[in-house]
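## tool: complex_structure
## caller: assistant
## args:
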Amino acid sequence: MSQKILIVEDEVDLANLIEITLKNAGFSVSKANDGKLGLELALSGQFDLIMLDIMLPHVDGLEICRQVRINDASTPIMMLTARDTETDRIMGLNMGADDYLTKPFSIRELEARIKAMFRRAQVVTQVQPTSQEIKFGDLSIEPERHKVSFNDKVIDLTSTEFDLIHFLAKNPGQVFSRSQLLDSVWGYNHLGYEHTVNSHINRLRAKLEACADLPKVVHTIWGVGYKFEFL
Ligand code: CA
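## result:
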């Protein structure tokens, strides 16, 4: 059964465009063009994800978000905002929204973000089979403690660096492109954000290489991407 998405957006053309995109991506979609109907539908409990424009007739998106969150902590909520201001974003997140998109956004980005929200929602509700310690020789990666150590010496990593090495080490020998790493580690893929991956890989590598006797584990495959291999 396809996942149900509610779009509350008073710009009819934009709402239709989002609807077509999400339907093509395999979701089932309902729309409300004003805040009153939007609130009613959002509170019905029949949606797996809710997209809320902020400026709406009758009831605004922040109020809808607040009311949904009174009884429902888990349905993913994405705010759509026309104003790229810190206050709007923070207000939305404070009301319990999970993510936001600033207009104008690309349809490709919208789709990627929605899919990422569903993935994250799944990760939270599932028991993760990958939470066991991973060991290669004296290199140990402990997901539950977010800890990497070599010869019992802790390697101090940021949480993104940890997620990167953990993801690569779970799939040893497999080559991942920057774009795949953005999808899997960051949870969504922005066009033009590939350099983010390079800089995190470089910092991760510098920290690993600072460990005496640790063989090289993060390998660059030129023109393709990266892989983990403990040789
Ligand atoms: Ca609006």
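## assistant note: The first helix runs from residue 12 to 24. The chain is about 40% helix and 20% strand. Handing back to user.
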